[in-house]
Design brief:
This protein has about 190 residues and is an alpha+beta fold. The chain is built from 5 helices and 4 strands; from the N terminus they run H-H-E-E-H-E-H-E-H. About 45% of the residues lie in helices and about 15% in strands.
């Protein structure tokens, strides 16, 4: 009888623990998301669409002066391992670009700037990643009413699959060093 009573007490304790955990879980679900968690979620979605079995992760820490420092890295989805891909300049640039786009997406629901400029994001690297990134930017720009502008060196976008993604409607200006100055950004040289 004593053994049965002990087992019954254990069952009651476990049921109480389960109910407590359910309550905590439901409370967490009902809490509003923080900007940090929402931006992090979007970053993970964006990077996973560019890289198979990888997501981008960011952390914010305060440095010795009390200023925020952002740490960005890739993590494998399958096993949670941190990769070294963020150490390469091309993948690091794509990670930073996705981070900036994530912030723009988060603030796009507010009356906030909806313009993002990043220099040379598709310069260098694998053409397949360029194509995926261009498609991602087009999709995100349309969905969130964002204007995204980047620069590219001509030889970096000459591959047929990349060129196909960059239709004339996507090209705002083609700059060159001609003597007539028609290829300059503002119509004159400095």
């Amino acid at each position: 009888i004593r053994e049965k009573r002990n087992k019954a007490d254990e069952i009651v304790k476990l049921e109480n623990d389960i109910n407590t955990l359910k309550g905590e879980f439901n409370k967490k679900l009902s809490e509003p998301k923080t900007p940090y968690s929402e931006i992090r979620e979007v970053l993970m979605e964006l990077t996973e669409s560019l890289f198979d079995d990888r997501v981008g992760i960011f952390e914010i820490e305060l440095n010795g002066n009390g200023n925020p420092e952002f740490k960005l890295y890739y993590q494998k989805v399958s096993d949670g391992q941190i990769t070294a891909e963020d150490k390469g300049s091309t993948y690091q640039e794509l990670l930073v670009a996705c981070f900036c786009i994530s912030i723009a997406i988060y603030y796009s629901k507010n009356s906030f700037y909806k313009f993002l400029f990043q220099d040379g994001i598709i310069d260098g690297g694998d053409n397949r990643k360029k194509v995926k990134f261009i498609r991602l930017v087009k999709k995100v720009s349309e969905k969130y009413d964002l204007q995204y502008v980047t620069t590219a060196i001509e030889h970096e976008v000459q591959a047929s699959d990349v060129k196909k993604e960059l239709k004339d409607v996507n090209i705002l200006a083609e700059l060159n060093d001609s003597s007539d100055e028609k290829g300059t950004l503002y119509g004159f040289s400095f």
